[in-house]
Amino acid sequence: MSLHIGDTAPDFTVETTKGEISFHKWAAGSWVFFFSHPADFTPVCTTEMGKTAKLAQQFAARNTRPLGLSTDTVAEHLKWIEDVNDTQDTDLQFPIIADADLKIARLYDMIHPSQSDTAAVRSVFIIDPKQKIRLMMTYPMNVGRNFDEILRVINALQLADRQHIATPADWHPGNKVIIPLSIVDDDAVKAFPQGWDAPRPYLRLTNVD
User: Fold this and answer.
1) Domain of 48: which CATH number?
2) For residue 87, what are the domain limits?
3) Which of 64, 94, 130, 187 is deepest in the core (most CB within 10 A)?
4) HEC per residue, 39-81
């Protein structure tokens, strides 16, 4: 199945380390950081699971629920979580999907045959409270994810939704933002009374809260 930004994230019901969940019902009203792993008890995955657990408060502050996936069973996940907590000095509480039959991995196009026929690559989906896919990233199996970037993207998406803006390269909270071309100057005056700088007519930079 080929997924695109703007699509409704496919629904599913599945067993996890926190019991059975129906994805849309579980995620209702929240953003979701949905991320996959090749397998349990692997080194890169262990560090990523630990990092996600350590960022629990930061995800919660953004109304974002982490949801992991690995192509192993719940029993294996639970044993692995003990290792994650011990080696990464954390307390992992978010659910990890059991996907030994690869059903969810195939639904979300996480199986890349040139990498493996049975292990999910490091996919990232950011899904909004309307259950729309807002971002997709795919890392190779041997490269860990950049969690600063994941949080930065969530910040940018949420600010863009609130303020109807776009963000420039390397944007971080507090930096100037871009007034989209879809907002003509007459409307921008009302929407952005603080004004803006325009080094070019198509490049209008302003500050927002």
Assistant:
1) 3.40.30.10
2) 13-144
3) 64
4) CCCCHHHHHHHHHHHHCHHHHHHCCEEEEEEECCCHHHHHHHH
User: Within this chain, do residues 168 and 137 fall inside the same structural domain, yes or no?
Assistant: no
Provide the number of structural domains found in the chain. Answer: 2
Sheet containing strand 197-200, edge to edge, reads 177-178, 203-206, 197-200
Look at residues 68, 15, 67 and name the one whose alpha carbon lies nearest to residue 38: 68
d(CA 97, CA 56) in angstroms, rounded, equals: 18
Q: What are phi and psi of 43, to 5 degrees?
A: -70, -50
Q: Are residues 169 and 137 in the same domain?
A: no
- Stated as kind and residue range, the H or E segment containing 50 is helix 43-54
Tell me the one-letter amino acid at 99. Answer: D
63 in a domain, yes or no? yes
Question: What letter represents residue 196's amino acid?
Answer: W
The position carrying tokens 């994810």 is 145
Phi, then psi, of 95 in degrees rounded to 5: -75, 145
Separation CA 89–CA 200 (nearest Å) = 50
Task: Tell which residue, 105, 141, 142, has the closest CA to residue 125.
Answer: 105
Which candidate in 9, 14, 27, 45 is catalytic? 45
What confidence tens digit (pLDDT) does each residue in 152-166 have? 999 999 999 999 999
Which 8-state DSSP code applies to residue 8? B
**Global pTM exceeds 0.85:** yes
Span 106-111, average pLDDT: 86
102, with CB counted inside 10 A (0-12, 13-18, 19+), is middle
Annotated active-site residue 45? The verdict is: yes
